[in-house]
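Chapter summary example.
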Amino acid sequence: MSLGEYDYEPIRGLPGALPAGETLLWQGSPAWRPLARRALHATAVATYFGLLILWELGNALYTRAPWAPALRISGILLALGVVTVGLLCLVAWASARATVYSLTNRRLVIRHGISLPMSLNIPLRLVETMALSRHADGSGDIALGLPRGERIGYLLNWPHVRPWRFSRPQPTLRALPDAPHVAALMGRAVGSSGAVPAAATPATADAAGSATPHAA
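The structure predicted for these 216 residues follows.
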């Protein structure tokens, strides 16, 4: 019998057994399609290749050039676009499959990593604020801001960080199908832990914890 890369986990998504007094409240994973669109920008890449094809065909029409070269180049661009978007979707699917968000009454654990499994532990007692972003497709993100002095690696934890926050990276639960429910549950757990965070605010906010990355 062969072992998978996460088969050694005593509890799925957690690097070790829960200590006495700690209970698991919720687990979830990103939805791969919203992750592909927003984190890997698959839609933008598809649009870019579509514009290149339209430019090539429009230029041939405008200059009255022979159609054969324009169609050949357009075919190449179409193939490149399909392959590129397909690879981005594959990465998003693999990333979503490898990611487990675990909320306990004491911490949030983000297990992620396609080839190198990692776990990011964020104690709830240090949470300050949370930011809930809801999207038109029904999914949402929950960004957690860290207090000064607490740092996580942006590249090490991508795409589970808030976009473009390089100086003070914010761990983020990405592409959640039930983001409002999770935000409410997390808010109650944070309150019970002794922290006094702001309520999850729309679009922008923070929630912090002493985030320590561990190899899973």
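To summarize the output: The first strand starts at residue 24 and ends at 28.
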